[in-house]
Design brief:
alpha/beta; Aspartate Aminotransferase, domain 2; 2 domains; seven-stranded mixed beta sheet
Length: 360
């Protein structure tokens, strides 16, 4: 391919060149059908083969056992903030939320019409720069589930281990899924929007323990019913077919690269290289507790807004795009998902070093 920019966007994010090239080659004629994959009917044998391959590839990649549904659903992960309590309460009256950033806070707020929401812990008072110590958490065995966001894209806070809690864990893994190995047995459900590490925006993957989704809230729409979606192979209505196809290509790419262990090694190396520069600098700063710094979204700051604006403008001129921080956090945010090559980090580090020499 010709020139490809280094896209540090938090999502929709860049995809690997190999995945994009395969999709391009197959775009007009998938598997000799004479049709684009975007034109193939979702109930045809051709698309059913695509869907089955994607599910089996994901199950193999993550070692998902048969007692979990794997659902490919239309819409973003934010929709699942409502859908999760609709499906997972199982007659219980409350659900717990670990709030470590904007997205887990939003999930908690959206769940309030469906259940009594209990805050297990929150780092809002400290600006979402850390994860509260485990001994401070307020737990209740009667909760239907405990919800948390593994990686907060806005503030750059990430859980480095799975919370040890005796109620089913529901994890928003949108920005960290497939970035490292996952022990599925520790989760009741995982929800993950596709647009960071999996596929184009517009689809969410749900991995859910079958025993947790057999009793939905009365009035739950059929399209939001996990059990019904599973029974109909996620085809109660027309699914996001192209996204589903792209997800299958991405799963295969990760396998061919060496699997989730290789992804974890690469992502750690990429983020450590960037944090090392920030920590050794008197010019750049990161405010997140080192014990929970994100590997996926590195958030950092310059001395003032004027320099921040100049940094963003000149970085784009250097072929480094989408580095502007979220409006709620400001500063700079570099998203380092699986598709970001090490050469992208090298280019960013080189640019940051030169920028500091000129303006520090």
């Amino acid at each position: 391919m010709s020139y490809r920019a280094f896209n540090f966007s938090p999502g929709p994010a860049m995809l690997p060149n190999e995945v994009m090239e395969q999709a391009m080659q197959e775009f007009m004629d998938w598997n000799g059908t004479g049709m684009s994959v975007m034109e193939i009917g979702h109930r045809t044998n051709a698309f059913i083969d695509i869907a089955k391959h994607a599910e089996q590839s994901l199950r193999s990649l993550v070692s998902i056992p048969d007692d979990y549904h794997v659902l490919f659903l239309a819409g973003g992960a934010t929709l699942q903030f409502s859908v999760a309590p609709m499906n997972l309460l199982r007659g219980r009256k409350s659900a717990g939320y670990i709030v470590t950033g904007i997205w887990s806070g939003k999930a908690q707020k959206i769940a309030e019409p469906y259940t009594e929401v209990k805050t297990i812990c929150s780092s809002q008072a400290t600006g979402y720069r850390s994860i509260p110590a485990r001994e401070s958490w307020q737990l209740d065995d009667d909760m239907a589930y405990c919800f948390y966001t593994e990686n907060e894209t806005v503030g750059g806070v990430e859980f480095q281990s799975v919370p040890d809690i005796d109620v089913p864990l529901v994890c928003d893994m949108t920005s960290s899924i497939l970035s490292r190995p996952i022990d599925i047995s520790k989760y009741g459900a995982i929800i993950a929007g596709a647009q960071k590490n999996v596929a184009p925006a517009g689809m969410t993957i749900v991995i859910v323990d079958k025993s947790l989704c057999e009793q939905v809230l009365p009035g739950t729409p059929d399209l939001l019913n996990y059990q019904l979606q599973a029974e109909h192979d996620c085809m109660l209505n027309t699914p996001p077919t192209f996204n589903w196809y792209m997800a299958g290509l991405m799963f295969d790419w990760i396998k061919n690269e060496g699997g989730l262990e290789v992804m974890a090694e690469r992502n750690l190396r990429k983020s450590e290289g960037l944090y090392q520069l920030i920590d050794s600098s008197g010019f750049y700063s990161n405010e997140v507790d080192r014990s929970c710094r994100s590997r996926m979204n590195v958030v950092f700051y310059l001395p003032n807004e004027e320099l921040t604006s100049l940094f963003i403008r000149q970085s784009e001129e250097a072929g480094l795009f989408a580095l502007k921080g979220h409006k709620a956090a400001g500063g700079i945010r570099a998203s380092l998902y699986n598709a970001m090559p090490s050469s992208g980090i090298d280019s960013l580090v080189s640019f940051m070093t030169e920028f500091e020499l000129q303006h520090g």
